[in-house]
Amino acid sequence: MKNLREIMTDEVEVCNPEDNVYEAAVKMKNNDCGAIPICEGDQLLGIITDRDIVVRGVAEKKPNSTQVTDLMTENLLTAGADMSVGEAAKMMAEKQIRRLPVVDGSRLIGMVSLGDLATHTSTESEAGYALSEISEHHHYHH
Q1: In this structure, what are the phi and psi dihedrals at residue 43, rounded to the nearest 5 degrees?
Q2: Which residue numbers delimit the CBS domain (predicted)?
Q3: What is the DSSP-derived secondary structure letter of residue 73?
């Protein structure tokens, strides 16, 4: 069975704690993604999602100049690079998350999304399970 190191995206666009929400949104647009990790150097602090921007930012009438750290999700569920794809899919389904930061200690080394799981034929059943479990519930964390 494959592990996350084999399927993760290892060149991840990040924001630093001083970046604002507008800068994060532009990075999401330019990279066609819905989440940007927040890192100080290579240390993962949190993640900001398009949903965070809408719910914690726009709906609360916060300006685009708001720092990403004010809206980011902290205390993330993460995985190590040697975690199996099946374990990751199960964890993502159980915890209702679509994106999983891959870390070495607290150092961000990659990201895995449900899309990454779905593009690998040996993981179609795990990805399908995770997607069906997440799609049935409305509690998205990151």
Answers
A1: -85, 120
A2: 8-66, 72-127
A3: B
Q: What confidence tens digit (pLDDT) does each residue in 44-87 have?
A: 999 999 999 999 999 999 999 999 999 999 999 999 999 999 89
Which CATH number among 3.10.580.10, 3.40.50.1980, 3.40.30.10, 3.90.550.10 corresponds to the domain 4-135?
3.10.580.10
Decide: 118 and 93 in contact? Cβ < 8 Å.
no
Q: How many CA atoms lie within 13 A of 140 on its CB side?
A: 18
What one-character-per-residue DSSP string does 78-104 give? -B-TTSBHHHHHHHHHHHT-SEEEEEE
- Whether pTM > 0.85 for this model: the answer is no
What's the CA gap between 16 and 39, in Å, rounded? 5
- The CA–CA distances, whole Å, from 20 to 26, 30, 48, 68, 109 equal 10, 16, 11, 5, 23
